[in-house]
């Protein structure tokens, strides 16, 4: 178990939980350019490419801050500019955590490293009180059917050929689960998970059969060096059996970096940009 984590997975051997890192980060400036629709009964942000093609579609599975968080919408806009139709469904069904929590619990890495034990203990307690009930309400038995139902609806959308899924933090685990063998009606063609939380090792990774890309930070308190090595070894063994996968570890990056990094830091902005490029290149390859 990663330090400060809480095992709230539904199965597997090692449950890597969620800590105060999930509540850290920055809100990005900019105005999203997509539209809002109702799809599969869920409020959904949709960003379309210039030609309006739905041939290559990507479902964004959000972190705990939900589908209205500006950062994820702006990222979906970037994917649309790259030629994908991007969907951000409200899979929390109007129960995401408020953005105000973003800076309440954990500051960026340099400040975090200077915190006292007392400060860190207080942060962990606050996270437990905030996240515990929320995670129970949005456990796998509740959330996966909602996500599957949305993918099913996207699959049925006229003009749709290939479907990918990208997930962040809480949603990162569901991106991995979407890469399992499943009913073709809810199957995806490729998946990309950025700093996933609540993952079970090896339970969530052994059933993966679809191309899977991972972006991990080497300062992620949810996935320590030991867990990252286990994931790398698991996916390497599956690559030996023919599965397409990759694991990229980003130096000095904390949990949430690909979506909520500090773009005023040259190093953090570079990591965010590279993680965006990683996903776009992955989907260009496997949704072609």
TrEMBL record:
InterPro entries: AB_hydrolase_fold, Dienelactn_hydro. This is Dienelactone hydrolase family protein-like protein. One of its GO terms (molecular function) is hydrolase activity. Keywords: Hydrolase. Pfam families: DLH (PF01738). Residues 43-286 form the Dienelactone hydrolase domain. It comes from Aaosphaeria arxii CBS 175.79.
